[in-house]
Amino acid sequence: MRMSQYFLPTLKENPAEAQIVSHRLMLRAGLVRQTSAGIYAWLPLGFRVLKNIERIVREEQNAAGAQEVLMPTIQSADLWRESGRYDAYGAEMLRIKDRHDREMLFGPTNEEMITVLFRDGVKSYRDLPKNLYHIQWKFRDEVRPRFGVMRGREFLMKDNYSFDIDRAGAIRSYNNMFVAYLRTFARMGLKAIPMRADTGPIGGDLSHEFIILAETGESAVFCHKGLIDKDILGRTIDYAADLQPIVNEWTSLYAATDEKHDKDVFEKIPESERLAARGIEVGHIFNFGTRYSKPMNAVVAGPGGEQITVEMGSYGIGVSRLVGGIIEASHDAAGIVWPESVAPFKVAIVNLKPDDGAVSGACAKLYDTLQAKRVEVLHDDRDLRPGAKFADMDLIGIPWQIIVGPKGLAAGKVELKNRRTGAREELPIDQLAQRFG
RNA sequence: CGGGGCGUAGCGCAGUCUGGUAGCGCGUCUGCCUUGGGCGCAGAAGGUCGUCGGUUCAAAUCCGGCCGCCCCGACCA
After folding, report:
1. Which residues of chain A have pLDDT under 70?
2. Cα A178 to the chain's mean position, in Å?
3. Positions of strand B less than 7 angstroms from a protein CB
4. What ipTM is given for this predicted complex?
5. How many whole angstroms separate alpha carbon A308 and alpha carbon A311?
6. Are A40 and A145 in contact (CB under 8 A)?
7. Do A68 and A144 sit in the same domain of this protein?
8. CATH code (residue A107)
9. Among positive and negative, which fits the CA dihedral A388, A406, A338, A66?
10. Tell me: the pLDDT tens digits for A29-43?
11. Amino acid A9 CA to nucleotide B30 C1' distance, rounded Å
């Protein structure tokens, strides 16, 4: 993409409404614009990040055996009366009426709808287990939206639902998602720590929140430092095998949010191994047994023809929240520092002198070469002073900056700068393309 | 939902107390200059002062209603 043609409205000053760093940077870097309290429009740069996060989530869900569907945002109130949640859910649910005065709602979650889809489509234990997910916009009419996309009213969430014949199967499904979540967040460059959690209004008895550490996190968290350095990506995962040992490995060390915190247990950890910090919840997994299948009659025929109520679990990842969460975890004084896996572009070419034919020619050639290699590249071909370009480029956080100026070019060289470390190296221009793609 | 605050140009703000020509910085546009970290000079555009009503010769300013947004707390992917 050529920056001179890109819709990328960056801001020099902090908008007054934004208090936390991720919100400020998302507005300043032209990722989003607020349209109402807790509701945001995604601009091209932000949308690319959102899609990258979505892609990683999707790849890991598919690898773990979940199947993607897409359910609507608008649901019928009757569906929720069946589970008994229509009245219970309260003011957080946005209720609307259609032209025929039918009661509808903008879905805050999809347990009811998926249970109906499952119930109508699966009749035998032979068809289990099933795990269905979708990535869809949700609306929860929060009393007080804040922190930009981290606590919006409209948000993009991956939610999925597992159906098993018995509790042992349900726990296998739970463990699969537990490991898939570890991988998903690790691939985004995040240290997400699973913490034992309350199940809240969704119900059930087994639940973990996945929390990333950040100073601006909403909840206080306490854990064993050993969890920070655990690595999941270096391992080969076989989702058909029993993943309980891996789950145990992560859950054997102490980790709790303040609501589940046990001070006595925590203080038995050697002081040098204790970590008390703040965190942002980016995922939450639940096993809730027959909480929905029972009232909604989601049953299958067992081997002896008997009717068995299925065991369910649900699993959520806040996709839009992650954009803010990643920024909270990865920024510096100059702006955002995107991990490569979610960066809107992998490489940026900074043309320091657009009206110099040699410089512009070299930039254009480099751009074409990288494009041909399918490297996502942003070319700053704008007619601006170098300082303004450097400032913008650092602000939007592209991982690699290729800086092309007349002095270096005279010697056949360009500069490659790493956004995260600030490290620069001079390279012959014809060797550059092979560094990428 | 309890408490607090704010709405004036695209962004950040002053002006409101004490009614009388709507202002500053940044950004934008034009020209010149400059070109390795938001450079300089000159000129220009851009605002029914959130909205509705009231008081007044006169309202951004005083009074009332409404709407919107933000912060702290309780609640939440």
Report:
1. 199-205
2. 15
3. 1-2, 11-13, 25-27, 34-39, 68-77
4. 0.93
5. 9
6. no
7. yes
8. 3.30.930.10
9. positive
10. 999 999 999 999 999
11. 22
